[in-house]
Amino acid sequence: MGNVVVQSEKLNLPEEIARKLKGKKLELLEIKEGILLKLVEDSINAARGFLKGSSFSSERYMHLKKEEKGLER
Protein backbone atom coordinates (compact mmCIF):
# COMPACT_ATOMS: atom_id res chain seq x y z
CA MET A 1 0.00 0.00 0.00
CA GLY A 2 1.32 3.45 -0.88
CA ASN A 3 0.46 6.58 1.05
CA VAL A 4 -3.23 7.49 0.77
CA VAL A 5 -4.85 10.83 1.69
CA VAL A 6 -8.54 10.84 2.69
CA GLN A 7 -11.04 13.22 4.26
CA SER A 8 -11.63 12.28 7.89
CA GLU A 9 -15.39 12.01 7.23
CA LYS A 10 -14.73 9.05 4.91
CA LEU A 11 -13.47 6.94 7.83
CA ASN A 12 -15.57 5.23 10.47
CA LEU A 13 -13.91 6.60 13.60
CA PRO A 14 -15.06 6.77 17.22
CA GLU A 15 -17.28 9.86 17.72
CA GLU A 16 -14.83 11.76 19.97
CA ILE A 17 -11.96 11.32 17.49
CA ALA A 18 -14.18 12.07 14.49
CA ARG A 19 -15.25 15.34 16.10
CA LYS A 20 -11.62 16.44 16.61
CA LEU A 21 -10.69 15.54 13.03
CA LYS A 22 -13.80 16.91 11.28
CA GLY A 23 -12.89 18.63 8.02
CA LYS A 24 -9.23 17.57 8.19
CA LYS A 25 -7.30 15.50 5.68
CA LEU A 26 -5.57 12.38 6.94
CA GLU A 27 -2.72 10.45 5.40
CA LEU A 28 -2.76 6.69 5.87
CA LEU A 29 0.76 5.33 6.14
CA GLU A 30 1.68 1.67 6.25
CA ILE A 31 4.31 1.10 8.92
CA LYS A 32 5.79 -2.01 10.50
CA GLU A 33 3.31 -1.89 13.40
CA GLY A 34 0.24 -1.42 11.16
CA ILE A 35 -1.51 1.63 9.71
CA LEU A 36 -0.69 5.13 10.95
CA LEU A 37 -3.21 7.98 10.57
CA LYS A 38 -1.37 11.28 10.19
CA LEU A 39 -2.88 14.76 9.79
CA VAL A 40 -1.94 16.40 6.50
CA GLU A 41 -0.63 19.85 7.31
CA ASP A 42 -1.60 22.72 5.05
CA SER A 43 1.72 24.59 5.04
CA ILE A 44 0.11 27.86 3.94
CA ASN A 45 -2.42 27.85 6.78
CA ALA A 46 0.20 26.63 9.26
CA ALA A 47 2.49 29.57 8.37
CA ARG A 48 -0.28 32.19 8.43
CA GLY A 49 0.33 34.75 11.16
CA PHE A 50 3.70 33.44 12.34
CA LEU A 51 5.26 36.92 11.95
CA LYS A 52 2.39 38.66 13.74
CA GLY A 53 3.70 41.02 16.37
CA SER A 54 7.19 41.14 14.85
CA SER A 55 8.64 44.23 13.20
CA PHE A 56 8.77 42.42 9.85
CA SER A 57 6.14 43.42 7.29
CA SER A 58 5.51 43.11 3.56
CA GLU A 59 6.67 46.74 3.18
CA ARG A 60 9.93 45.91 4.96
CA TYR A 61 10.36 42.83 2.76
CA MET A 62 9.88 44.89 -0.43
CA HIS A 63 12.41 47.45 0.82
CA LEU A 64 14.97 44.71 1.48
CA LYS A 65 14.38 43.19 -1.98
CA LYS A 66 15.00 46.60 -3.62
CA GLU A 67 18.22 46.97 -1.65
CA GLU A 68 19.26 43.46 -2.67
CA LYS A 69 18.67 44.22 -6.36
CA GLY A 70 20.77 47.38 -6.01
CA LEU A 71 23.67 45.32 -4.66
CA GLU A 72 23.50 42.90 -7.62
CA ARG A 73 24.43 45.59 -10.13
SS strand fraction? 15-25%
Give the biggest sheet: 3 strands, antiparallel
What is the rounded Rg? 21 Å
Instruction: Give the overall average pLDDT.
Output: 82
For the secondary structure, the number of strands is 3
Span from first to last CA?
53 Å
Can you offer a commentary on this structure?
It is a single chain. The chain is α+β, with helices and mostly antiparallel strands and 73 residues long. The chain has one domain. Helix content is 37%, strand content 23%. The chain is built from three helices and three strands; from the N terminus they run E-H-E-E-H-H. The protein has a three-stranded antiparallel beta sheet, with no helix packed on it. Strand 2 and strand 3 form a beta hairpin. The radius of gyration is 21 Å and the shape is elongated. It starts with a strand and ends with a helix.
